[in-house]
User: Fold this.
Amino acid sequence: MSQSGSDPKAAAPWAAQLDELAARRRFAAGLGGPEAVAKHHAQGRLTIRERIAGVVDEGSFQEVGRLTGQGRYEGAHLNSLTPAPYVMGMARIDGRPVAIGGEDFTVRGGTSWSGDRKKGGQGGFVEDLAHQYRIPLVNLIDGAGGSVTSIQRRGHSVFPGVHGFERSVQLLGEVPVVCAVMGTAAGGPAGRAILSHWSVMVKDTSHVFAAGPPVVQRSLGQKITKEELGGADLAVATAGTIDNVAASEQECFALVKRYLSYMPQNVWELPPLGDQTDPVDRRDELLRTIVPENRRQPYDMRRVIRAIADQGSIFEIQPTFGKAVITSLARMNGTVVGFIANNPMVNGGAMDVKAARKQSHFIELCDCFHIPLVFLVDVPGFMVGKDAEAAATLREGMRVVYVGLQATVPIFAVVVRKCYGMAGMATTDKNGLDFKVAWPSAEWGSLPIEGGVAAAFRREIEAATDPKRREAEIEAELRASASPFRTAEAFGVEEVIDPRETRPLLCTFINAARGRLATSVGPKPKYGVRP
Assistant:
């Protein structure tokens, strides 16, 4: 019988199967059920689907693995289905595709789940998607990882690494990886938060630690709260485990989107050009007077960055950790750059162990994604003293030198004031053009004159009728010869400039370097190996 003559009362083809598909999708959309979702909301937290919707362009999320879970049947009839505690897929952020996923805390607290193939959480489809399509990965983390109950389920314990970090590590050399800790991250999820180029957490509602309070109390006898163990004050400001903190989940989403706006899609591309309306030849009068004539008096280095970079373009990374150095993404005539600036308001700008760790990580980030580096230098050297030595400042400081010498992106050094010792050496580009410019306020050497005179002229000073006066006289004599103009005469520094010329000069050279960057895109060699 022809289709036109078929019985209109007959069931449409595949109606039962399509009805079942719709039912399974409803179960998935329900997450852990109304009570679990209500409890989650009562704690001031959004569900994973609400979080994904808050980050990505409206209507752009294409979920993958929506039907994954555990069904309960009566014969062949599906009564209900508990979704897998992980939601992921592909979406767009500012029109660019990303892989995105996160734990569903309303299902078993977001603990790990595995079927024939992992969806994500540690390896899995979402990481394969980022790798194969060369698109950024956004992890929205809210889970405790493994559970000892898996021993009961499997009948044996699993050796560590069955679901390892191999793909997670590989991605760090291929695409931008962002991790937002949205709730509690312990074990594997906490490890994934660290295996990222940039991470953020939410104040008061997010926590990150290797193991939670029950494990700590059982193993060490310490009774401690989640906030004390892994809240933002400790994880961001004290330990630097996580880079930035947001006041709310909505602010967290905005930070994720803003960070990605500075990043290329992958290491085979350059970062996108931004707005170019800020005049290249803008000369900020603030720069002429911001450095005090008193060499010991601090000033606001962040104001210097704002005066040089494109207006409104600064995104500071780790602002509350390692405060002796400032690390910021920004733009210069639309080109993404990384600013590394010593902060004279903290330890006089001396590099301590936290500042060294922060600087190394930022150099690696910028080098990975072809972002030129601009150093604003005012560093008297490594932090000294017993505490600094006990903290291994020298080791971490020399790692900064090592990482800097491995970098292949263009590096520009602007010596604002002090540039001494090995910490000063870490601002140079010895394997590149090594282009250094100085303000008239600049000074440099192996170590500051004050400490150097006390050591090198100790006997002469002690033998003087007035030791203090003689020490001051020697310092004055040496300082006259330490003028930046004397070094410029010998072409030991390439240029001494009026501070107001800093932005026009940097924009000129950064723009010229884009051609070189375009020919050097691709994965970087492992550190310690040169191509």
The radius of gyration is 28 Å.
